[in-house]
Automatic annotation (TrEMBL):
Organism: Lysinibacillus agricola
Keyword Phosphoprotein: no
Keywords: Transferase
Pfam families, alphabetized: Citrate_synt (PF00285)
Lineage top rank: taxon: Bacteria
Gene this chain is encoded by: mmgD
Pathway where this protein functions: Carbohydrate metabolism; tricarboxylic acid cycle
Protein name, per record: Citrate synthase
Catalytic activity, reaction form: oxaloacetate + acetyl-CoA + H2O = citrate + CoA + H(+)
PANTHER family (alphabetical): CITRATE SYNTHASE, CITRATE_2-METHYLCITRATE SYNTHASE
């Protein structure tokens, strides 16, 4: 058997899936056969959750039933909050989130059952608990009081409310929900690969998602949205941002929010939707500084490097204008991606083969007899 090596597994097909596919020729992010960009303009996050789990866009009753299932899982074991309180000062919000998901495993009474039915139950549980874990791990780590979920609100409005302590306006709710749709699923990024690799040993959904949090935390993946916002704040003005980007490029630094393994030298189509959302928020708030800074940054990167924004570049200022704390941008990305990850783990468990690649050995070979003892 001839073994090929591609650094970073670039261009390697790692799995068969019915969930999603980045069609770079047709310029579509295919989710269960539909284009994610079109979905993001007509459907809400819960519709996408249903679509990913069940393969079809829900009718009203199915959507309501899903909503009820998630609401019945809004509460988490109170011990989780006590554990958050024991974490050292300065613990990253993603590490708090990773701990919370990991703790949930211990409350699953049928841990050894990997059937689709049980995994679906776990997915509802994780999706229902996610706003609570994301918001309250951050809150406890920042010395704030735990906030209770509000079942009267929609899934996304409750998520927003639990983070900020404020109910969103209808525009805020719409844009926040749209960001969750855009982040929900994206084929085989590092975190999804991580989750599938873990699941392939017949390990459980909680463990797979715990590993995926660690993967998504990195700056080259989900951590980029926070890094983008810190750059924008440091730069303060259009001119400041242009200079900052040029200096970073001169120092051969990578610019967060630009480039993508699959889109390479094209704009991530999801970024365009968030750019439009940013414009709407700027108009509503009568402050277009961030929009102009981001546009200027985009021009610099195209001119200097031929690189285009990915979703994180425009999600960051959108979250800022939505009044969300920066440390929680990556946990929100994970909260949204929970559905994609659950669907991938279920698919992996349903048709499993252990991931076990080989290496290209570049070390030395020795003969023990050559050693003079
Ligand atoms: C929603 C998401 O998770 S999207 C990803 C979010 N991550 C980021 O925004 C981090 C910044 N971007 C990057 O680091 C990269 O573009 C990645 C990690 C997303 C993709 O990486 P890869 O496919 O491995 O591309 P790689 O890092 O090899 O880059 C190829 C070339 O483009 C350059 N390049 C790629 N991205 C950037 C960037 N953001 N800034 C500057 N140069 C870049 C590299 O330096 C390299 O140049 P070279 O060939 O002259 O050495
Ligand atoms: O696809 C990737 O490699 C990263 C990404 O954009 C995502 O996970 O949404």
């Amino acid at each position: 058997m001839e073994l090929n090596y591609s650094p970073g597994l670039d261009g390697i097909i790692a799995a068969e899936t019915k969930l999603s596919f980045l069609d770079t020729v047709g310029s579509q992010i295919v989710i269960r056969g539909f284009d994610l960009i079109e979905l993001s303009q007509r459907y809400s996050y819960l519709d996408i959750v249903y679509l990913l789990l069940h393969g079809e866009i829900p009718i009203t009753e199915q959507r309501n039933d899903l909503q009820d299932k998630l609401k019945s899982n809004y509460q988490v074991p109170l011990e989780i909050f006590q554990i958050f309180k024991l974490l050292p000062n300065g613990t990253h919000a993603m590490d708090g989130l990773r701990t919370g998901i990991s703790v949930l495993a211990g409350y699953d009474q049928q841990m050894n059952d990997r059937s689709t039915e049980k995994n679906l139950g776990r997915a509802y549980r994780l999706l229902g608990s996610m706003p609570n874990i994301v918001a309250n791990s951050y809150r406890v780590l920042n010395g704030q009081d735990v906030v209770e979920p509000d079942s009267k609100l929609s899934y996304s409005a409750n998520f927003y409310y639990m983070i900020t302590g404020r109910k969103p306006t209808s525009l805020e709710e719409e844009i926040f929900d749209q960001s969750l749709v855009l982040y929900s699923e994206h084929e085989m990024p590092n975190s999804t690969f991580t989750a599938r690799v873990i699941a392939s040993t017949q390990s459980d959904l909680y463990g797979a998602l715990t590993g995926a949090v660690a993967s998504l935390k990195g700056n080259l993946h989900g951590g980029a949205n926070e890094a983008v916002m810190y750059m924008l704040l440091e730069a303060k003005t259009v001119e400041g941002f242009e200079t900052l980007l040029k200096n970073k490029l001169q120092n051969k630094e990578k610019i967060m929010g630009f480039g993508h393994r699959v889109y390479m030298k094209k704009m991530d189509p999801r970024a365009q939707i968030m750019k439009e959302a940013l414009y709407k928020l700027c108009l509503e708030q009568g402050d277009d500084r961030l929009y102009h800074m981001c546009e200027a940054g985009e021009k610099v990167m195209v001119q200097e490097k031929g690189l285009y924004p990915n979703l994180d570049y425009y999600a960051a200022p959108v979250y800022y204008m939505l009044g969300l704390p920066i440390e929680i941008y990556t946990p929100i990305f994970f909260g949204s991606r929970t559905i994609g990850l659950c669907a991938h783990v279920i698919e992996q468990h349903d048709n499993n083969r252990l991931f076990r690649p080989r290496v290209h050995y570049i070390g030395e070979r020795h003969n023990l007899e050559e050693l003079s003892v």
